[in-house]
Amino acid sequence: RKEVEQDPGPFNVPEGATVAFNCTYSNSASQSFFWYRQDCRKEPKLLMSVYSSGNEDGRFTAQLNRASQYISLLIRDSKLSDSATYLCVVFDNYGQNFVFGPGTRLSVLP
Amino acid sequence: DVKVTQSSRYLVKRTGEKVFLECVQDMDHENMFWYRQDPGLGLRLIYFSYDVKMKEKGDIPEGYSVSREKKERFSLILESASTNQTSMYLCASRRGRGNTEAFFGQGTRLTVV
Question: pLDDT tens across B56-86, in order?
């Protein structure tokens, strides 16, 4: 079983749609969680950290369920510029390194 | 803003060459990482360093070595480049304390011919 798993995608949605990405992780001792965005041929960039209480940044909402070892990202009112690959990332506190999910590609269509 | 800079965007090297990929960060971060990214395989950790002169193997260290002589610089070395090392290489850094995120360099696309 992979350490971090994500919806395989791709997701093709019309502008204005709401889309949700799911992620599960296997290491119950993980403490830090992030969503990164990666555009084609570019480096990953932090979209948002994920906190236990859930957090929101504009159109983006992240949720963490430690009991189920599950992380989600909700994007409301999708824009064309949201088209990218979204990476779920877990920090392994014991190994002191990041574990990346395979990513889910989103295409927002006009 | 944190800046992580990789020395080259694109490199073409011949099989058997020794290749150096350089990464510099300007935020006094303790932790630095080298990943490679391949289609269908995602980001895989090659090596990381949690402080100067410290290094730890990641998931795929074979064929690579690293050097961290100064805090701001983390070098990835391909001792004898092979065609299966053709990939996108990404360097990242992170503050060593707290639940902090990683910042990435722009990536080096290496082609070994």
Answer: 999 999 999 999 999 999 999 999 999 999 9
Render pLDDT for A39-91 as a digit per residue (tens, 0 to 9). 998 999 999 999 888 899 999 999 999 999 999 999 999 999 999 999 999 98
The pLDDT of residue A1: 57
Q: Which uninterrupted H or E stretch holds B72?
A: none
3-state secondary structure (DSSP) of residue A89: strand
Tokens of B44: 């895989």
Amino acid at A26: S
Cis peptide before A10 (omega within 30 of 0): yes
| Rounded CA separation B10/B32 (Å) | 21
Contact B105 A44 (CB under 8 A): no
- Over residues A39-51, the pLDDT tens digits come to 998 999 999 999 8
- Give yes or no for B95 touching A (CB within 8 A): no
- Long-range pairs, B63-66, Cβ under 8 A, ≥24: B64/B34, B66/B34
Q: Sort out which chain A residues have CB atoms less than 8 A from B40's CB and list them.
A: 102
Task: Tokens 């070994």: give the residue.
Answer: B112
Nearest by CB to B42, which of A32, A91, A100?
Answer: A100
Strand segments, DSSP code E, in chain B are 4-6, 10-13, 19-25, 31-38, 42-49, 56-57, 64-70, 73-78, 87-94, 103-104, 108-112
- Asked if residue B61 has a cis previous peptide bond (ω within 30° of 0), the answer is no
Q: What is the DSSP letter of A26?
A: S
Nearest CA in chain A to B91: A43
d(CA A52, CA A71): 10
